Amino acid sequence: MKTFMYTIFAIVLLLSSCKQIEPPKPYLSMETPVAKKSPKELTFHKDTRIDNYFWMRLSDEQKNADTPDAQTQDVLDYLNAENDYLNKAMEHTDSFQDKLYNEIVARIKEDDQSVPVSDNGYSYYMKFEKGGDYALYCRKKLENGAKEEIMLNGPKMAKGHAYYGFGSRSVSTDNKLLAFGIDTVSRRQYTIYFKNLETGELLSDKLSNTAGSAAWANDGKTVFYTIKDPQTLRQNKIVRHVIGTNQSEDVVVYEEKDDTFRCFVGKTKSDAYLVIASFQTLSTEFRVLDANTPNGEWRVIQPREKNLEYSIDHYGDHFYIRTNLNAKNFKLVKTPVNKPEKEHWIDVLPHRDDVYFQGMDLFKNFLVAEERKNGLRTIRIMKWDGTDDYYIDFNDPAYFASTTSNLDFDTDYLRYSYSSLTTPNSTYEYNMTTKKQEILKQEEVVDTTFAIENYTSERLYATAKDGTKIPVSVVYKKGIQKNGKNPLLLYAYGSYGNNTEPTFNSTRLSLLDRGFVYAIAHIRGGQEMGRDWYESGKLLKKKNTFTDFIDVGQFLIDEKFTSNNHLYAYGGSAGGLLMGAILNMAPDMWNGVVAAVPFVDVVSTMLDETIPLTTFEFDEWGNPKNKMYYDYMISYSPYDNVEAKDYPNILVITGYWDSQVQYWEPAKWVAKLRELKTDNNLLIMDCNMETGHGGASGRFERYKSLALTYAFLFDLEGIIE
User: What is the rounded distance in angstroms from the CA atom of residue 505 to the CA atom of residue 413?
Assistant: First the structure.
């Protein structure tokens, strides 16, 4: 009887934490935006599609023109009309959005600082001051009484800019100069600047249209950087720059002429070699140069081959190479620095069918391997002399663990980060000899009501239609009853082999504390369960990604976590493609769907090689110039499969300056949905006219979009505070 009374009390407490009413629908009396129709015939493989909204596409020249032409003005008018409609349709939630925003940012420690990382005689860290939306990037000498040096003052630099994005930061080997990238448009086209850290002087050197990072040669005056094709934004050239000279004098040391590849430049952990990597989805190629001879000749490690992937690091007389050579789940090999080709590769960690080798960290006495077993990351520590080999223990049912910021070779201490759905991100220092560890920092949740023990996480498995077991990570507040009445937000990505890790996010507490269940579907297309998991969710098997997500949704309904009337879906970018696909395939499963920067016009985009990022995506989606891929892609492309039928409530989020998924894809999709859908459900689009793919650049500003997203979900549930 006592247990029953506690259960009743828990339910009452949970339900009283938020007020629920019948969801208002003010948009029903509003006039929806109507995009003009200008039919354009698109014919390929003797198949003709009519695109009524093709006109929404603008060139960069049109977007950047001082005075908009007629087409640009039409596009701006439509986007502004959608934003106006959004504001009016959600106006009744304005105060709630403000509350959510303030609630979210209030959990974030304002005067925060990262764990310092030591490198070459200095300790580096970033910190935020109260009220600051941008970080200060700092360092101190590793000596007693050293004074703090502010290398970059983010708040001061970003002042007056609607968008201000920092790229990478790198310090010359003599510790005197800082190279840093800045993007003020949100197109991921960075300008690299240089600062004298001894005098505070900003040098006259300025490198435009770059990928945002620079790698220093060991002479302290030569840097290598990547530039982009100005139209496609493909990273296609590696350039050498000498401090004190004009960019026009820079020398191209490598040009990637295969338009399905892109390239970048970096440095080995040992600082002995500069590295150029050329890569596509299924093939890589690395070149190295002695970092002491910046004008020397680059040499290839292993010439590129179809389906051969590898990455390198250096230690002593060997290169250590992570590769899929005869190893679908990857393995670790080593090769002498003077014989780097694959014929000389010797196994260090052989291939295993049940373990995915994710990466490694090299130390003087230890090899640390990051492996994935049963869908979860593990950290394995091995002594080079073979006297010890063990895994660090983790206890949560679903978690994320990864090595981090291990720049020193000659140490027994390993830095790693750990998080779970209930545990805030934590940085540990682990003694690999004694096996003792110390927590250096745990993300502080500035909320007196927060406690890890108030929440429960589970690791479950849904059965896909073909019998495959799909991992599902779930978190909810204790007291939730599995009665089919809980609102549930289901998230997934499922592309490019990217893994969706079950990590903590303090913003999610606004959902959990109001009775939402949050779930991650680890669907095929990622690599959570090994390389086969990725191969089974791409190209001509891409639909597995979509059906897995639907099957997970049904599983959560069957398990009484929720019901169709309370089930919501969220995904962004390629995950936005997922949202578009499941809306067409199973529209009645969801009460609401949020699609952020969604890749929805798949066929038209992949047929146009002038659009940024298209050519090296062929191994992910297929090249539609091949009819087999064209037919398959058009069978699931969200834009091409919009029909005259009922759809659930939908929120679409995009950015006018997006270089990854151009704004016109979601804009066209919304216009077509408005034209054809037969329901009275809410359809709104938030187009941020000042940002791109990643949203706002400021630390707190980005949460305004999240507050809108949460208000959209809560409004559909009738939760008003």
Answer: 27
